[in-house]
Design brief:
With about 400 residues, this protein is α/β, with parallel strands linked by helices. It has 2 domains: about 120 residues, P-loop containing nucleotide triphosphate hydrolases (Rossmann fold); about 280 residues, no CATH class. The protein has 19 helices and 13 strands. Strands 7-6-8-9-10-11-13-12 form an 8-stranded mixed beta sheet, sandwiched between helices. A hairpin with a 2-residue loop joins strand 9 and strand 10. The model has no long low-confidence stretch (mean pLDDT about 90).
């Protein structure tokens, strides 16, 4: 158990104050067990992967839950699906008591189905990702997300960098899984071995267990293709031809990868009244450490010279932004925008604060000639401003309606 306090602890405590049950979901090895112990440090934890805990609860879930007086934690709850109907009964017997159950689950689309069918209205769902930048490097929580939510552009433009360039590129290379970051920052061989074990466990245990009829060999090839096309618009027919399977099969592969938290599908922003837009989704690997491993990236230096480093960098920044809004409990919808003439905005944020287009660049400065797409988007949708996230050292207005925010400020 590491001693790094996760920034989302306060968010989940807030949810526990409003709901009888909170479900923390996410990929394996993102630190869910350590996290829930930080949320409820004095509460008993029952691990469904331990035979004694599983036997105790599965024998009679209704009786077990009825005996628990204070808040409890149930780890890897997806292992016992019948637990959810018992939770519903127990919660309904005392709907006025919030914060009694904190459960976790990983790598299981069935988990969300069980939660939504059995615990609708009784549970809050929180998706936990890997480490954020501030967790990795010991900084205070970024003000960026709250300032966006409040629309406080005046304070936003005075944000200062919080990380060094070396730190942020190390995070981009290693990714966000806690264990490899904490143990193997200076051990490339150990990092590669950890990622190899993680990938094989994901494919040969988690996916095989969840989808026993799946062709694992083909699916493993599919994940390799995902890494090579991370950050690109998805063309199902190309995947189908390359894998020699049907398009419905390919779509199911994407759903599995997304549902098991290894891949994120980003839908297109289609609310355009003036222009034809691309409607196919984009997607990327959620963790750049795993992505770099699958691309056989040997070092941070190699990352700098990789031909498609821009897409890796875009993935890294988007995931940081999503984590930041999530840990602040700020609802936000994330899309991308591309017209038929290839004008593109990397990320469109939509929430109570309105719409903010975000362009993500690897360089330390952004040429004015590369701002046409985001400027047109701002004009078309009558938006107050847009954001360029790059590797600059200071926050500054680079045009009348475009604010440069260094990734070092996120």
């Amino acid at each position: 158990m590491h001693d790094i306090k996760r920034t989302a602890v306060s968010a989940v405590k807030q949810l526990l104050g409003k709901f009888p049950c909170v479900a923390v979901i996410g990929a394996r090895q993102v630190g869910k067990t350590t996290f829930v112990r930080q949320v409820l440090p004095s509460s008993p934890l029952f691990d469904m992967e331990k035979r004694a805990d599983y036997d105790r609860i599965s024998y009679d879930p209704d009786f077990f839950l009825a005996q628990q007086k204070g808040p409890i934690i149930i780890d890897e709850s997806q292992i016992l699906p019948e637990l959810f109907s018992s939770l519903r009964i127990t919660i309904d017997n005392n709907r006025g008591q919030n914060g009694k159950y904190l459960i976790t689950g990983s790598s299981s689309p069935e988990l969300l189905k069980n939660i939504t069918e059995s615990l609708a209205g009784r549970v809050a769902i929180y998706e936990l990702g890997g480490f954020s930048l501030e967790e990795q490097w010991g900084c205070d929580k970024s003000r960026f997300y709250d300032l966006i939510h409040k629309g406080d552009v005046g304070k936003l433009e005075h944000m200062k960098p919080r990380f060094s360039q070396k730190q942020i590129m190390t995070s981009c290379f290693l990714g966000s899984y806690p264990e490899p970051f904490l143990k193997f920052k200076n051990d490339r061989q150990g990092f590669a071995l950890w990622m190899e074990n993680y990938f094989q466990t994901y494919v040969k245990r988690d996916v095989r267990g969840l989808f026993p009829g799946l062709n694992i060999v083909v699916f493993q090839r599919f994940i390799g293709m995902l890494a090579a096309s991370s950050g690109q618009i998805l063309n199902y027919s190309e995947y189908a031809r390359s894998l020699d399977v049907s398009q419905p099969t390919v779509k199911s592969y994407f759903e599995i990868a997304h549902g098991t938290f290894i891949w994120r599908i980003i839908q297109s922003y289609q609310k355009s009244l003036k222009k034809r837009v691309i409607k196919m989704p984009k997607g990327h690997m959620r963790d750049t450490g795993l992505l770099n491993y699958l691309l056989s990236m040997p070092s941070v230096d190699a990352l700098y010279s990789y031909p498609s480093v821009g897409r890796i960098w875009e993935t890294f920044v988007i995931e940081q932004i999503i984590k930041g809004f999530s840990s602040s409990l700020i609802p936000v919808k994330t899309c991308y925008y591309r017209t038929s003439n290839k004008a593109e905005v990397d990320l469109v944020l939509e929430g109570d604060f309105g719409i903010i287009p975000v362009e993500i660049k690897m360089g330390t400065s952004t040429d004015r000639r590369n701002l046409a797409a985001i400027e047109n988007f701002i004009d078309d949708y009558k938006i107050k401003f847009g954001i360029i996230v790059n590797n600059a050292e200071e926050t500054a207005w680079i045009s009348k309606k475009i604010l440069q925010v260094p990734a070092l400020c996120l």
